[in-house]
Amino acid sequence: MESLSKHPILEFNPDVMVTLRGRYNLEKSGDMDKAIDILQDWLNQQDHISNKTFSRDYLERTIIVQKGSIERAKAAIDKLCTVRTLLPRFFESNDVKDIYKTIYGTFTQVILPKQTKEYYRIYIPQILKNGFDSDMLFKTLQLAALFCDYFNAIDYCDGIIFISDFTGVDIINGMKAINIVDIRQAATVFLQGFSVRVKAIHFISPSTAIDLFVTFLKTIIKKKLSDRIHVHKSMEELHKFVPKELLPVNYGGDLKSLNEWSADWVNVLSSEKARALIKDIRSNKTDEKYRDTVQFNEQYMGMAGSFRTFTVD
Q: Looking at the DSSP assignment, which residues form a beta bridge with residue 248?
């Protein structure tokens, strides 16, 4: 990959490719191509991965997300293909408009256009009003999976900053809508399948009930990630961590509103080009009858989710 293609929403820091390649010791001419060749050769030998049509650009992005480690990139691809096969309901819908029929007006999700100076993206999943149920909440997880599949193919960054405003949300009643199985499986899909690198999690709420939610969340995620959770009583506190010029007006920032960004993303993700890209990416799954059962047990039986009932025909 020589350069990054212009995107209708996303902006890239001018030096992002050079900096991240250098950060992970792949800055010399030909280094990245050699790494991609090794990864592709490995893919060609994996009989249990049923579709191996990963673009070289996709493989480069995977290597960058895995901090330049080819071995970690192999594991990441294997896990994501496996998760798509064993937890297929998270990947059932490729139609963002269909998802929004269920959640419109109650939930939204956006990735903001600008990268931080550290090359992070800002992701905002937002509850817009109370009164949702577990089915609606699961639809938001399907939307998040759709976003992740798309971003794995088109973005170039060094991680995600997660921000959500709970001001005005009835946190206790909202927690009653949580299906614990869905949430634990979602942790597997996003943290192990997609290998999402979360640099920080910011919650905004003046309510003490947010502490109960954070305590629950910490039972699902690892300590390393739970230590990155920050709770703020106001937007002004958030601005000490995230510059206002990178945030939407709803978050006291300089960018247009969440609703406007959400409408832009619906247009992008529902385009013929994006839907074809996501469909192609999601065809990369596993056929477990070609994988050794012992190998599967060693690699996946400890994953939250879980796959303990899985058997190979």
A: 255
Helices (H), ranges, 66-133:
70-86, 96-103
Q: What are phi and psi of 199, to 5 degrees?
A: -80, -30
For 208-237, letters b (16+ CB in 10 Å) and e give ebbeebbeebeebbeeebeeebeebeebee
Model pTM score: 0.91
State the pLDDT at residue 121. 97
Among 130, 119, 124, CA closest to 253: 124
pLDDT in tens, 104-138: 999 999 999 999 999 999 999 999 999 999 999 99
Of the candidates 284, 309, 278, 283, the residue with the CA atom closest to the CA atom of residue 296: 309
Rounded to a whole number of angstroms, the distance between the first and last alpha carbons of the chain is 40
Paired residues of 127 in beta bridges: 107
Round to whole Å and give the CA distance between 95 and 161: 25
